Amino acid sequence: MLYRASWLALGCVAMFAIVGCESKKTLPTVPVTGQILLDGQPLEGATVTFHPVEREGRYSANGKTDAEGKFTLTMVGVPAEEYAVPAGSGVLPGEYYVGIIKNEAENSMEGLSDDEIEEMEAAQGDNPYAEDNIKHIVPPKYNQPRRSGIKVTVTEGQTELPPIELSSQ
Description:
Blueprint: H1 2-20, E1 33-38, E2 41-42, E3 47-52, E4 60-64, E5 70-72, E6 74-76, E7 94-101, E8 103-105, H2 114-124, E9 134-136, E10 151-154, E11 164-166
Parallel strand pairs: 1-11
Antiparallel strand pairs: 1-2, 1-5, 3-4, 3-7, 4-6, 7-10, 8-9
């Protein structure tokens, strides 16, 4: 009886080791980088979103621009239990609509006293981030990927996209 229990325990340990060590699949991504310019100047702190033109079997990707306006993309919405998607992994080759957004709250509550915050909340209906309190650094026409008018094609082996130039006008 002890012999049979030992084999059962050993079998369970082996099964968990195999299942636990199973590696996730990787996708054939292209780790591209790019740059966003607003009126010819690098745009820092903008969120860049790529949405696939053909949605079937494709995933969106996001990135954030640095001080030089440069970004790298990481796919989002990928089933984590199935695929490994490290930061900066890029996108699958294909066509993408691009959206770029950067906003600031004009009435930031940072550094205000409790009394000042109460005054602001009373005056603004409790929402300092209401639309009329938002300053659009990037014009709203660029915010929605499918409506921005920006489309890029990512090809295998490509590592850098041409700069994406925006106008504040």
